[in-house]
From TrEMBL:
Native organism: Draconibacterium aestuarii
Chain segments annotated as transmembrane: none
Identification of the protein by name: Amidohydrolase family protein
GO molecular function, one term: hydrolase activity
Domain Amidohydrolase-related as annotated: residue spans: 144-350
Highest taxon above the source species: Bacteria
Phylogenetic classification of the source organism: Bacteria, Pseudomonadati, Bacteroidota, Bacteroidia, Marinilabiliales
């Protein structure tokens, strides 16, 4: 009788344990949001692929070109949001044009008012602040510049999230041969203008992070979503300390899976424990860019990226990746953690969907 009870207990534990995790078969049935997508076209078929894979999209508008592009992209996103109100939402952003002229703050706030009225749920700032844009005296403008204070105070008062891609991965300040992930070495070899190892005259990695944190210190009520694991992707320990310091901040995972894979190779248990402890502060995203003219290959790329990341987060399969060298095992996060990372966290932090 005692043996039967023990066997029954073991069997029950196994059933409960298996029931607490998703499998690859669950991928298309679980509600998911890609919280860092880019749509730069008026006719996006990526939304249709998202519907097939049970995804919704948050398209992030970015000042990565001329101001005319910001305005045009906003109009495209507004149009798509009206066509697919249940499937996609979008952020606004602002330009740096007129920075040295009177009225920049007022004009920027008026523009952001219009973006929010049109349906944007947040405001994006990009790495051109701190790494590219210069004032009339040829000084790089950092994100903690006092001229931004009224804009960020406006966002704080209105409870509008600020979405920040500030700085770059720490690999950016290393020679290509010392970078920990192949996606970084590939990107910076193609974009040497952003490879800070080659530009010691620019602010250091530590300077970029300090400016970001100083801005947050000045705006303690600001809701902040740090893109790309807040550029602290190289260490879940350091990222944990940062999240502890800034309770109004969350992070998305976009384009930083390679760094997570790399750390998982070294210490899977530590990475898994990080995800479980900060399960309310992490948002899934990819940084995929849709510029229109989509092909079947592009749709397959989206699907395969989403499927790979699901395997890593939801299962304990042995995996390899073109992003890094070495083999690692998926994190197999509990269902409630997966549901937060893939959906409810984005809904809560952006107050959308």
């Amino acid at each position: 009788m005692r043996i039967n009870l023990i066997l029954l207990s073991i069997f029950s534990f196994t059933v409960i344990s298996c029931g607490n995790y998703y499998s690859m078969d669950d991928f298309k049935s679980v509600e998911k949001i890609d919280a860092h997508f880019h749509i730069y076209t008026s006719e996006s078929t990526a939304v249709e692929q998202a519907k097939k894979d049970k995804f919704k999209l948050l398209s992030i508008n970015t000042h990565s070109g001329a101001c005319e592009r910001v305005i045009e992209s906003h109009q495209w996103l507004r149009k798509l949001n009206k066509e697919y109100p249940a499937e996609m939402e979008y952020s606004g952003t602002f330009c740096m044009d007129g920075w040295d002229e009177p009225g920049w703050n007022e004009n920027t706030i008026n523009w952001l008012d219009q973006c929010i009225a049109d349906g944007a749920n947040s405001v994006k700032v990009w790495k051109n602040i701190g790494m590219e844009f210069r004032d009339k005296n040829a000084n790089l403008v950092m994100i903690d510049d006092p001229q931004f204070d009224t804009v960020f105070a406006y966002l704080s008062e209105k409870k509008i999230p600020l979405v920040g891609h500030l700085g770059e991965p720490k690999n950016c300040w290393l020679p290509l041969s010392e970078m920990t992930t192949k996606n970084d070495s590939g990107y910076f070899s193609r974009n040497p203008q952003y490879h800070m190892y080659k530009h010691p005259e620019f602010p250091s990695y530590e300077d970029q992070m300090a400016a970001r944190d100083h801005m947050l210190d000045k705006n303690p009520d600001l809701i902040f979503i740090g893109c790309h694991l807040a550029s602290l992707e190289w260490s879940v320990d350091v990222l944990a300390e940062w999240l502890d310091k800034y309770p109004n901040a969350a992070v998305d995972m976009a384009a930083r899976m390679g760094q997570l894979f790399y750390q998982t190779c070294e210490d899977r248990d530590k990475v898994r424990a990080f995800f479980i402890k900060y399960q309310n502060r992490i948002l899934y995203g990819t940084d995929i860019i849709d510029r229109g003219g989509n092909t079947e290959d592009f749709h397959n790329k989206i699907h395969e990226t989403w499927l790979r990341d699901w395997e890593y987060l939801a299962t304990r399969n042995k995996m390899t990746s073109s992003l890094i060298d070495g083999e690692f095992r998926g994190l197999q996060l509990p269902k409630e953690v997966i549901d937060k990372i893939y959906s409810s966290n984005t809904k809560r932090w952006y107050k959308s969907f």
